[in-house]
């Protein structure tokens, strides 16, 4: 029992290495070591040592002429292996199917991929319209309920690396969404307070979504479970069971990934 309650001991070198890779993966282009050290609040000497080890093993490339660092071929191979094995899809498919059967609205499972969410499971409810959130589709994380559920759990430094300027924000519809880092931070504060995320017409006109975060064994926000519905059919009273459904599904997936249960909304 204690094994599931107690947090695993943190290995400083491994933690720092993973944080370096996470920031590099979130950027659209290579960055300088000094910038990386600043964003992660690491000493420069330690940052250079970590980068040198990652370069040696092929997970990072050093662009000497530009004095920049980016992900290397070994990181790409790791990503490909993850997609081939589809662990989240294997674990989550039945959970999503059960949730959709119970509530009668379309559901999906998404992971964070840079500034986007990548949909790995899409389960359409009977007699419901097709959605843009098909498997393999990427949408900007700040606009989607799934993305907001995950972003709300990220460390502040990583959130700043992903959405640090107004140029990082896009829009799909006329519905008002966060357009600045400050607006996004305020929205994510509400997500953490409520225990779930939502969006209203910001991905597709006339559709809304609610989502809850899934944690893995390291308590990291590994994915998000969401339900999407026609807003003309779902008012505040009808939305409450949907929130409960995504929270319960996220809880079950967290349990299967040995993570913690999300807080009850």
What can you see in these coordinates?
It holds the Pfam family HTH_IclR. One of its GO terms (molecular function) is DNA binding. A hairpin with a 4-residue loop joins strand 1 and strand 2. The two termini are 25 Å apart. The chain has 265 residues and is an alpha+beta fold. A 6-stranded antiparallel β-sheet has the order 5-4-3-8-7-6. It contains 10 helices and 8 strands. It has 2 domains: 78 residues, Winged helix-like DNA-binding domain superfamily/Winged helix DNA-binding domain (Arc Repressor Mutant, subunit A); 171 residues, GAF domain (Beta-Lactamase, 2-Layer Sandwich), CATH 3.30.450.40. The N terminus is likely disordered.
Summarize the structure in short:
With 265 residues, this protein is of the alpha+beta class. Helix content is 45%, strand content 19%.
Give the overall silhouette. globular
Mean pLDDT: 86
Q: Number of helical runs?
A: 10
Q: Provide the CATH topology of the largest domain.
A: Beta-Lactamase
What's the main sheet like? 6 strands, antiparallel
CATH architecture of the largest domain: 2-Layer Sandwich
* Secondary-structure content class: alpha+beta
Helical proportion, percent range: 40-55%
Count of spatially separate domains:
2
Output the strand order for the largest sheet: 5-4-3-8-7-6
- Which residue ranges are poorly predicted, with pLDDT under 50 across at least 5 consecutive positions? 1-8
Tell me the name of the CATH class of the largest domain.
Alpha Beta
CATH 4th-level superfamily of the largest domain: GAF domain
The arrangement of helices and strands along the chain is HHHHEEHHEEEHHHEEEH
Kindly estimate the percentage of residues that lie in beta strands according to DSSP: 15-25%
Task: Tell me the number of strands.
Answer: 8
Radius of gyration: 19 Å
Instruction: Please give the alpha-carbon distance between the first and last residues.
Output: 25 Å
């Amino acid at each position: 029992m204690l094994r599931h309650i107690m947090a695993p001991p943190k290995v400083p070198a491994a933690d720092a290495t993973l944080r370096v890779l996470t920031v590099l993966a979130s950027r659209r282009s290579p960055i300088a070591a000094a910038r990386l050290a600043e964003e992660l609040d690491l000493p420069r000497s330690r940052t250079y040592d970590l980068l040198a080890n990652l370069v040696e093993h092929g997970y990072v490339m050093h662009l000497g002429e530009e004095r920049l660092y980016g992900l290397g071929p070994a990181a790409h191979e790791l990503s490909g292996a993850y997609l081939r094995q589809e662990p989240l899809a294997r674990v989550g498919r039945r959970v999503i199917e059960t949730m959709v059967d119970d509530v009668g609205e379309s559901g999906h499972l998404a992971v964070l991929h840079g500034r986007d969410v990548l949909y790995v499971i899409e389960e359409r409810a009977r007699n419901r319209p097709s959605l843009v959130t098909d498997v393999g589709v990427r949408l900007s994380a700040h606009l989607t309920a799934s993305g907001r559920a995950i972003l709300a759990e990220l460390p502040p430094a990583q959130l700043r690396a992903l959405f640090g300027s107004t140029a990082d924000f896009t829009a799909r519809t006329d519905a008002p969404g966060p357009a600045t880092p400050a607006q996004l931070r305020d929205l994510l504060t509400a997500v953490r307070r409520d225990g779930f995320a939502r969006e209203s017409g910001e991905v597709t006109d006339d559709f809304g979504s609610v989502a809850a975060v899934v944690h893995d064994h390291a308590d990291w926000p590994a994915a998000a479970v969401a339900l999407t519905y026609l807003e003309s059919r779902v008012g505040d009273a009808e939305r409450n069971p949907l929130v409960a459904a995504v929270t319960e599904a996220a809880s079950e997936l967290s349990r299967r990934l040995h993570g913690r249960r999300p807080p009850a909304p």
